[in-house]
Write a structure and sequence with these properties.
The structure holds 2 protein chains of 2 kinds. Chain A is of the alpha/beta class. Chain A contains 9 helices and 18 strands. In chain A, strands 7-11-6-1-4-5-12 form a 7-stranded parallel β-sheet, with helices on both faces. In chain A, strands 15-14-16-17-18 form a 5-stranded parallel β-sheet. In chain A, helix 3 (75-89) crosses helix 4 (100-113) and helix 5 (219-231) packs across helix 9. By secondary structure, chain B is an alpha/beta fold. Chain B is 29% helix and 29% strand. Chain B has a 9-stranded mixed β-sheet with strand order 9-8-7-10-6-1-4-5-11. Chain B has a two-stranded antiparallel ribbon with strand order 2-3. In chain B, strand 8 (157-163) and strand 9 form a beta hairpin. In chain B, helix 2 runs antiparallel to helix 5 and helix 3 (96-110) crosses helix 4 (131-139). Classes of the chains: A alpha/beta, B alpha/beta.
Chain lengths: 320, 267
């Protein structure tokens, strides 16, 4: 049976979210005999630049709904809109990127359709019976759970950064306008103000990361690591514990509750390596860990486990 | 009219020792339970509303085995007024859809004149963040998620500050809605009155039949998703351990790795 897959094409601040491309890469790479379509919700005409980008996604079809009310992310209207696309296309697999808005929209939609949903998945596959399986970390990454659903369509949200981007064959995309069928209401919600954060640290696509944990002991030491990262023109990141201590902004947090990363080189300074952190860096090509505690979990996880005082190392390195 | 706030809390296992049942769900009986950290913030937001509108009642509800009464008593000590526990074997093994349905039937049947529902956005055991949105849909009300703070409250309107990883937003809502907060680890304090109230309070224990649930939509039967397999992640690599290096040697080693990465990149 041919799998009909529908991917929600989230456009945030006039850009297609990277996770959309990651999902399409994964699906084209791992699933055979598929038709893959996108669902797109827009507030304005599709201009040429967005249209080009949408074509670049290599989807078979793009179902789109346009209404000026979609300028605000009112999840009630977005869920209704997606439902009308689903009713039209009738996919057997439905995938949404687990962005902030995606994580808000997907459960509302699942509840509306009375279907199961698996959140924040790091792997998807179909078994020999063509049952869709979604894998997600649970209990702070201590366990991985493979989840199936008795309802249709199978539905999962996908963690940004979980899948690598592949080159895949492009095909001609058919655009299908369903705007007429979308019902948009004035709800009891009024959007007063929205500011975009300036620091949009997208770590999911960068090549080299220096990351600091509580082993650095003080914010001053973390700042030194930041200085070192700047010196080598690499990205800085932090463990959850370091973020919770206020050493770094939450946007720099790596791990299950932060960002998943997949750099060529990940260097962990004074990070013990809680399971939720390791889950977030497992797609890194090479991991170097610097830690005084040879029994820290990260020391048996890393490719290179260097037993040393990270603070001393950073200080000496900066002074050279 | 009294402003009725419904706060949904979940008890999560306070242990590193996770046991799984034969049906691949979590063995909850016999585990020490604590209130999910995000739900503390939900209780705090409810208290903030009550501070601004003293004619408010905080109704706290949880779903789970009888031992969860302790967590609910804590919630009362922290300032909730009425506590309910939805406890029935028929509820066990509920996924987020069945949980949201069950909570919605509780609210519709027991507190039909509610003004607002507040939830912690996610629970630290599952991290799915699905139940609040799913519940809002079942109640057919608006939802605000990623809420950091209550900004203002008057008669029928409330304004909220939302913070996602990419935005700060201010949103105003008139009438009913569901609030999900992404603040974790609010510290709640109880005073002597709270303790006395908790000691004397009666937890209302409700079964499936008390809240008119459709039996095909609760518990295992009403849960479309199921855990097919659970396993500990195998993340190990072939580790090369390096001891007794000077800081100069280490920095040289890492710099070499950086250069190697970059030369690969340029090829």
């Amino acid at each position: 049976m041919k799998n009909k897959i529908l991917v929600y094409v989230e456009i945030f601040n006039n850009e297609i979210e990277d996770v959309v491309k990651e999902i399409i890469s994964k699906v084209k790479d791992s699933f055979s005999d598929i038709e893959i379509s996108g669902a797109c919700i827009i507030s304005d005409e599709i201009n040429d630049s967005i249209k080009n980008e949408l074509c670049e996604l290599g989807l078979d079809n793009i179902y789109f709904l346009k209404n000026e009310k979609f300028i605000d992310f009112d999840v009630v209207n977005y869920a209704n809109a997606l439902k009308s696309i689903i009713d039209n296309y009738v996919p057997n697999i439905l995938l949404i990127g687990a962005t902030d808005y995606g994580r808000e929209l997907a459960p509302r939609l699942a509840s509306k359709l009375n279907i199961g949903l698996t959140a924040d998945c790091t792997d998807v596959s179909v078994d020999e019976n063509n049952t869709f399986l979604a894998t997600r970390p649970t209990y702070g990454g201590k366990m991985m759970a493979v989840i199936a659903s008795k309802s249709s369509p199978a539905f999962a949200t996908i963690r940004p950064g979980a899948f690598k981007l592949n080159d895949y064959t492009k095909n001609t995309t058919k655009f299908i306008d369903l705007s007429q069928e979308s019902l948009c209401f004035d709800t009891n919600i009024e959007f007063i103000n929205k500011e975009f954060k300036y620091i949009k640290e997208d770590l999911s696509a960068c090549e080299i990361i220096f990351s600091g944990g509580v082993g650095l002991k003080t914010k001053e030491n973390f700042d030194k690591l930041k200085e070192l990262a700047q010196k080598f023109d690499v990205k800085i990141a932090a463990s959850r514990a370091a973020v919770e201590l206020g050493w770094a902004d939450q946007s720099l947090q790596v791990g299950q509750t932060g960002q998943s990363v997949k750099p060529k080189l990940y260097v962990a300074f004074g990070i013990s390596g809680a399971m939720q952190h390791l889950v977030g860096i497992t797609n890194s090509d090479k991991v170097i860990a610097v830690n005084t505690d040879e029994n820290a979990p990260i020391m048996s996880f890393a490719d290179f486990a260097i037993k040393a005082d990270a603070i001393q190392l950073i200080t000496d390195w900066l002074n050279n | 009219m009294t402003y009725k706030i419904v706060v949904c809390v979940k008890q999560v296992p306070d242990t590193q020792d996770i046991k799984w049942t034969e049906s691949n769900t979590i063995q909850r009986e016999g585990l020490e339970s604590i209130i999910n950290p995000y739900d503390f913030a939900a209780i705090q937001l409810a208290k903030n509303i009550k501070f601004l509108n003293t004619d408010s009642e905080i109704h706290v509800v949880s779903m789970g085995p009888l031992q969860a009464c302790e967590a609910l008593k804590d919630a009362v000590a922290y300032g909730c007024d009425y506590a309910y526990l939805l406890s029935d074997k028929k509820f066990s093994c509920s996924d987020t859809l069945a949980t949201a349905y069950t909570l919605s039937e509780f609210i519709k049947n027991i507190i039909p004149d509610y003004s607002i529902v507040i939830c912690g956005q996610q629970a630290v055991d599952g991290d799915t963040a699905q139940t609040p949105s799913s519940l809002a849909e079942k109640l057919n009300i608006s939802q605000l998620t990623d809420i950091k703070a209550l900004k203002a409250l008057d008669d029928n309107c409330s304004s909220w500050i939302k913070e996602t990883t990419k935005t700060y937003e201010e949103i105003k809502v008139s009438g009913r809605c569901l609030i999900a907060t992404n603040i974790k680890d609010v510290e709640l304090k109880s005073d002597i009155n709270g303790y006395i109230k908790a000691q004397n309070c009666k937890i209302n224990i409700l079964k499936a039949s008390d809240i008119n649930t459709d039996e095909t939509r609760i518990g295992l039967k009403g849960s479309p998703t199921f855990v097919k397999k659970a396993f500990a992640p195998d993340l190990t690599r072939e580790t090369i351990t390096m001891n007794d290096m000077t800081t100069a040697e280490i920095s040289k080693f890492i710099e070499d790795k950086i250069s190697k990465c970059r030369s690969q990149y340029e090829e």
